[in-house]
Fold this sequence. Notes:
Blueprint: H1 5-40, H2 44-64, H3 69-88
Helix pairs in contact: 1-2, 1-3, 2-3
Amino acid sequence: MAKLQSAVKRHKQSLKRRARNRHVRSTVKSAVKELRAGIAENAGEKAAELLRNAESVIARAGSKGVLHKKTASRKVARLAKAVHKATAKK
């Protein structure tokens, strides 16, 4: 463990950030998993609603710096494409 007061403070800050980032990443993964399950069920309206939820969660993660902004944008685009493809089959 660090002895300098500034190093101790930095360590505490890093632990807080790590906990926050883990929570946000977990939330993103859960939202994407739910959406993929909705797409697999061929539930059009449900998938569209889940897409809005996942898009919101991913955008929030991107704006907070947990995910890079372009990574968040790419994830949203790919999910939207998958939903569109699934609903267009009908």
